[in-house]
Amino acid sequence: MSQDAVQIISRGPRAVAEAAAEAIDANPLLEGATYSILEEDEDHNVWRIDAFPTTTEEADGLVEALAAYPEMKTVVEKLADADWLAVALSGLPPVRAGRFFVFGAHDKGRAPTNAVNLRIEAGAAFGTGHHGTTVGCLIAYNDLIKSRRFDKVLDVGAGTGVLAIAAALTGSKLAVGTDIDGPSVRISNENAKLNKSTARFVHASGLGHQLVAKAAPYDLVFANILAPPLVALSQDIKTALKPGGFAILSGLLRTQERRVLAAYLSKGFRLHRRIHRDAWATLVLRRA
């Protein structure tokens, strides 16, 4: 496959599309692959996976993974030379999630006065607010803060920083985010400045960074990542939380929900709430 920018589009029944997405998540060679899964045609049960590989090897791996599901019809389309991220974002409407209104520069004039407005520029990072996992996290957090206050918040895998920034703008005295991707950390810190937020973001793998460890235990931990690292970090997230603290977990498909939930229940967490949006799940857990 050439190194030209491509988009991989695969369509099929929901169950098969979810299984294919789970296979992509489970493949260590595709750990950083960017893709989405959504319902395209409800009447005909057509679900669609869109993937945007950044390397030839990643593109080949995605095509190979999807080929294992014959019911999925997959095509690879070459993208013209353009700033596709900017083009895509310009067509995305603002998102309302409870009291939060997430928008980009192109919708700056549409921010309502009766909302917590979050201007988020994605750059090369994940988390514009449109993805079902990000919306699920914002809805879960919005409902929690109706009756609780979270003074210290940690956002694991912060992406654009939208979740930690939301916490900082709604009363959290300390909001810290981490990401294993250097550009994401830069983008999230830029977004914090855009929103005049006190949220801080650091480049880290796991929860061992000095800034993160020093501020523990936290009242709330966000982790909007993938199912395998959610399972792997279950003990670390428990340790980072104070007793009675909450964890909002997402980045997982509904088909992966049982596996992730089992890992946390075994660590003494209790299920507080679950939110489903499209094929994605968000779990709200409380440390006993």
UniProtKB/TrEMBL annotation:
UniProt record, GO biological process: methylation
EC number assigned by the record:
2.1.1.-
Source species, domain of life: Bacteria
Its cellular-component GO annotations read: cytoplasm; ribosome
The main place the protein resides is cytoplasm
Places the protein is found? Cytoplasm
Give the transmembrane ranges.
Answer: none
One Pfam family from the record: PrmA
Q: Gene3D superfamilies from the entry? A: Vaccinia Virus protein VP39
**Keywords carried by this UniProt record:** Cytoplasm, Methyltransferase, Ribonucleoprotein, Ribosomal protein, S-adenosyl-L-methionine, Transferase
Coiled coil start-end: none
What Gene Ontology molecular function terms does this protein carry?
Answer: protein methyltransferase activity
Q: Which residues form the signal peptide?
A: none
InterPro entries noted in UniProt? Ribosomal_L11_MeTrfase_PrmA, Ribosomal_PrmA_MeTrfase, SAM-dependent_MTases_sf
Q: Per UniProt, where does S-adenosyl-L-methionine bind?
A: T134, G157, D179, N224
Q: Which family does it belong to?
A: Belongs to the methyltransferase superfamily. PrmA family.
Q: What does this protein do?
A: Methylates ribosomal protein L11.
Q: What is this protein called?
A: Ribosomal protein L11 methyltransferase
What is the organism field in this record?
Phenylobacterium haematophilum
Q: What is the lineage of its organism?
A: Bacteria, Pseudomonadati, Pseudomonadota, Alphaproteobacteria, Caulobacterales
